[in-house]
Amino acid sequence: MNQKLNIYATSDMHGELVDPDSIPACDVFIIGGDSCPWKTSHDIISQSIWLGMVFRPWLKEVKEKANEVILIAGNHDFVFETGDFRYWAKDYLDCVYLQDSRFDYEGVSFYGTPWVPRLRSWAFYGNEEKLTNTFANIPQDIDVLVSHGPPVGVNDALARSIHGEHAGSVELALVFEDRFNQGNPIPVNIHGHIHEGYGYTERWGSKLYNVSHLNRDYEPTNDIVKIEL
Length: 229
Hints:
This protein is of the alpha/beta class. Helices cover 21% and strands 22% of the residues.
């Protein structure tokens, strides 16, 4: 990491897009998945229309505030799972779309991955083998990991569950633990997915931010988050 960047992030807007005027001028603005609306149909055609009619004009306004916009998908974003999306997203949405891929900006390396456990009927579901193999590809020299879901035990307690169940990924947590034990921790992780987990934690030598915009009741109450590298 060669220099400090001015970074802001949000996630889990579910169609309730943050006001572009609330975004300070910054180097990078990060969107951690689940951008598509939850109140309407999740079919690919409906989501494609929404991306073109609503999301793309919104992104254009955000680009007036940020030098780069980094976007990953989430489990509600079925249209992002279509085979060709990753190839035309940059031109169509005019942003950096990361799907198990890397982006370097001004000496800072970003890596984005959308996969989550448990949700078999949703987009970007991965079983134990899938998640283990996929997360093994996270580069050793990454500065900022943008994952839709958190590692298990970090910003992931489901308040609506009577048992306070932790819904993060065991496989992702093992990556953080292994990197820490090797003396090479991942400096920053930005995630969402568990709305109840909005907040900040330090663990495994990493700074971990849950930046979910919607709260547990799907109300757009949580502010965008400034990320400290």
